[in-house]
Specification:
- The protein is mainly alpha-helical.
- The chain has one domain.
- Helices cover about 80% and strands about 0% of the residues.
- The protein is built from 7 helices and no strands.
- It is globular.
């Protein structure tokens, strides 16, 4: 088995911790003694459901990350495609909530939604062989989602963006990591065949 550099794992861990940091304004609001609004049953269901989804995604991410180290290049290339395409619908849901529900661009809603969906599609369609481009695109997309989610979560005090943001960030970074692992495994097996 190949010893793989753990930098992508560190990046994944930092981004997933940032996803949990999105809860900070909501926690402060919930614990505030001067809070006059009650959350209500639908609010608590949203909070609990979002937290359950987020925890499930994080556990799934670390399981897949651990398994990917042992996969060959074909399995990792397949995983990079599958994870990229599974993560994309989460980005579409996230973009929908941002453009149509939270920010409301009026007649430009669908244009902004289309632009965001096209931008978030890029990390999923980059060829796995171009793992540096794929992973860099994943980092840019994940950073954008986290920054916008952080600003909107703090200003609106709503966890509605946290679950799709966590899903997209996790799956797009895993997709980039699997592309990198596939490249490293392929290079290593090429070197071994020359020996």
């Amino acid at each position: 088995m190949i010893r793989i550099i753990n930098t992508p794992s560190l990046i994944l861990t930092v981004y997933l911790l940032a996803c949990f940091a999105l809860w900070t304004p909501l926690i402060f609001w919930l614990l505030s003694p001067s809070r006059t609004q009650l959350l209500g049953t639908p609010g608590w269901l949203l909070v609990i459901g979002t937290l359950v989804i987020q925890l499930g995604v994080v556990v799934f991410s670390f399981i897949i990350r651990g398994m990917a180290e042992g996969w060959d290049d074909v399995e990792n290339r397949t995983a990079t495609r599958v994870l990229g395409w599974i993560g994309y619908p989460a980005a579409v849901v996230w973009a929908w909530w941002v453009t149509v529900s939270l920010l409301q661009f009026g007649e430009w809603d669908l244009v902004v939604l289309g632009a965001l969906c096209a931008a978030f599609l890029f990390p999923a369609v980059v060829f796995p062989a171009k793992y540096k481009v794929r992973f860099s695109a994943a980092i840019v997309a994940a950073s954008t989602v986290l920054i916008v989610s952080g600003v909107l979560t703090a200003s609106r005090l709503s966890p509605i963006l946290i679950a799709p943001a966590t899903m997209y960030v996790s799956l797009t970074l895993l997709s980039g990591m699997c592309a990198r692992f596939a490249s490293e495994v392929s290079l290593s097996s090429g070197r071994n065949s020359l020996l």
